[in-house]
Design brief:
Layout (H helix, E strand, L loop, with lengths): L1 H8 L8 H28 L10
């Protein structure tokens, strides 16, 4: 946990308020969670999907 706190203190959001840091970390973790869920769905149902690329 000390490493995470050190990274946050030395980053651009370090001097900001506690609520703003929490909001930024929540946004980051929600984006990462969404990407991981999308990857799992794609790996599970990928062979059955009909993906077409075009204009």
């Amino acid at each position: 946990m000390d490493v995470i706190n050190e990274i946050i203190q030395n980053s651009a959001i370090g001097p900001l308020s506690k609520w703003y840091k929490s909001l930024v970390l929540l946004l980051f973790s929600s984006i990462v969670t969404t990407l991981l869920v999308m990857m799992v769905i794609l790996l599970k149902y990928g062979p059955y999907m009909n993906i077409q690329f075009g204009y």
